[in-house]
């Protein structure tokens, strides 16, 4: 189901892009608003009781709400790789074969990244005449060959890795922030996140980047804006005017600020008169991180578990499409705290390939009652599933895994541009090793 959603998403974009090119003088602009660890249950429109997302709820009212939208993976990097390539992580290389690990991403010490052989959405759009900008988190590799401007983007303001830390900046470099090809500073040093108060201005900076780009492009070539903000990923943050304004705590403050930004972006498109020529899509890379909740994590509504699990809470994402005039109105870590269901949620990894846990989402959306292995219903569903799995395997050519090898020497010690700023750090000796993925 995950494949279907992501691949369908990509082909819809491309279908529209090429259709637009034939039928109209100008293909539609595309604005992709990608949230970080925001859960299905965080939107008022999905039943979040404090109803603090008026702009997203309005967007849904004016556009199309997708209650069954799935990501391809419940973790940042593989999910984003799938979103931008339209291919499963096992095909695009964003996975690992180390031990039983399934939750691999791209920390600073990762050696791999998005392979050159992949075609990314911005690369295809560029061929169709688009100008492409990424604002915020890339997370598809930070070494020079993985730079977003080498993979179809024309402009970038943001960071290659997750903002979490802080580091003491001797043992590990703080994450750099780039403008286009070069770093312009680092988190904590130049782009502070106050871990105590949760104050950071990053969401406002990212909003300004979006606004400037939209204004610059509004009456030029068609544009693709990939707005990948990360305020809802722990450590969550908000700017001063939003801190303390949510009934849901600091996480809610971050959601409220993003909601406000979404409202401003949609209003800008309307003020510029380009709303009927701009397709806007809102979703999240993975479900809310229950290990960070309640202060630093969101809600997956009625669904089980969250980020880092393949239960509904990890894979099912909030999703809204908006286009006026076109769209009618591992052991030791408990990823499911407080949701102990015998034989379903486990601390250790279980092999389910031969005997998958099946749920009837119609009568049991919370996945609390696995269908009995011995029932006729279970047997009948397996008869449908296994041939599909076999068919899938027949054409499966696994890519070279990108998330197996780590090396402290590849961290962001000396990103391009650091010389100009006098901010290069000395890297340690190169020592490649197997990444430690405990979960
Ligand atoms: C955010 O911006 C305001 C206004 O420029 C400034 O006073 C404040 O120190 C900034 N906060 C952080 C955490 O950078
Ligand atoms: C979870 O449930 C299982 C089986 O019912 C039980 O053995 C285990 O102790 C429970 N764990 C917790 C943390 O409650
Ligand atoms: Ca994420």
From TrEMBL:
Belongs to the sulfatase family. Keywords: Calcium, Disulfide bond, Glycoprotein, Hydrolase, Lysosome, Metal-binding, Signal. Homodimer. It is found in: Lysosome. It comes from the Eukaryota. Residues 1-23 form the signal peptide. Its EC number is 3.1.6.4. It catalyses: Hydrolysis of the 6-sulfate groups of the N-acetyl-D-galactosamine 6-sulfate units of chondroitin sulfate and of the D-galactose 6-sulfate units of keratan sulfate. This is N-acetylgalactosamine-6-sulfatase. One of its GO terms (molecular function) is arylsulfatase activity. Residues 28-349 form the Sulfatase N-terminal domain. Its cofactor is Ca(2+). Gene3D superfamilies: 3.30.1120.10, Alkaline Phosphatase, subunit A. GO terms for cellular component: lysosome. It holds the Pfam family Sulfatase. SUPFAM superfamilies: Alkaline phosphatase-like. The keyword Transcription does not apply. The keyword Glycoprotein applies.
């Amino acid at each position: 189901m995950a494949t279907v959603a992501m691949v369908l998403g990509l082909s819809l974009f491309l279908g529209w892009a090429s259709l637009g090119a034939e039928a109209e003088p100008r293909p539609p602009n595309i604005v992709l608003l990608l949230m970080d660890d925001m859960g299905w249950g965080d939107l008022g429109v999905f039943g979040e009781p404090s109803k603090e997302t008026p702009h997203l709820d309005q967007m849904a009212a004016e556009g199309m709400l997708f209650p069954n939208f799935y990501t391809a993976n419940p973790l940042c990097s593989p999910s984003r790789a799938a979103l931008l390539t339209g291919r499963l992580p096992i095909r695009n290389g964003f996975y690992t074969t180390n031990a039983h690990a399934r939750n691999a991403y791209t920390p600073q010490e990762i050696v791999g990244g998005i392979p050159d052989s992949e075609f990314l959405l911005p690369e295809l759009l560029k061929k169709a005449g688009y100008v492409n900008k990424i604002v915020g988190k890339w997370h598809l590799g930070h070494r020079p060959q993985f730079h977003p401007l080498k993979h179809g983007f024309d402009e970038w303001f943001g960071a290659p890795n997750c903002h979490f830390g802080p580091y003491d900046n001797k043992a590990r470099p703080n994450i750099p922030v780039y403008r286009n090809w070069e770093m312009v500073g680092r988190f904590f040093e130049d782009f502070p996140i106050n871990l105590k108060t949760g104050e950071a201005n990053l969401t406002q900076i990212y909003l300004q980047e979006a606004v400037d780009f939209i204004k610059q492009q509004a009456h030029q070539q068609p544009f693709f804006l990939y707005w990948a903000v990360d305020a809802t990923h722990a450590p969550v943050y908000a700017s001063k005017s939003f801190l303390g304004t949510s009934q849901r705590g600091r996480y809610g403050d971050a959601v409220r600020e993003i909601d406000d930004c979404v409202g401003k972006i949609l209003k800008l498109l309307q003020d510029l008169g380009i709303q009927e020529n701009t397709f806007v899509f809102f979703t999240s890379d993975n479900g809310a991180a229950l290990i960070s909740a309640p202060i630093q994590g969101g809600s997956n509504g009625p669904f089980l578990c969250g980020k880092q699990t393949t239960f509904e809470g990890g894979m099912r994402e909030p999703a809204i499409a908006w286009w006026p005039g076109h769209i009618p109105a591992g052991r030791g870590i408990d990823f499911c705290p407080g949701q102990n269901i015998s034989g379903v949620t486990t601390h250790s990894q279980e092999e389910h390939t031969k005997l998958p846990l099946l749920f009837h989402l119609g009568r049991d959306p919370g996945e609390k009652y696995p269908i009995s292995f011995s029932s006729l219903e279970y047997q009948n569903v397996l008869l449908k599933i296994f041939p599909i799995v076999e068919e899938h395997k027949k054409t499966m050519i696994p890519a070279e895994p990108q998330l197996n090898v780590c090396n402290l020497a590849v961290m962001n010690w000396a990103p391009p541009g650091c010389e100009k700023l006098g901010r290069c750090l000395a890297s340690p000796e190169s020592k490649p090793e197997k990444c430690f993925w405990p979960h």
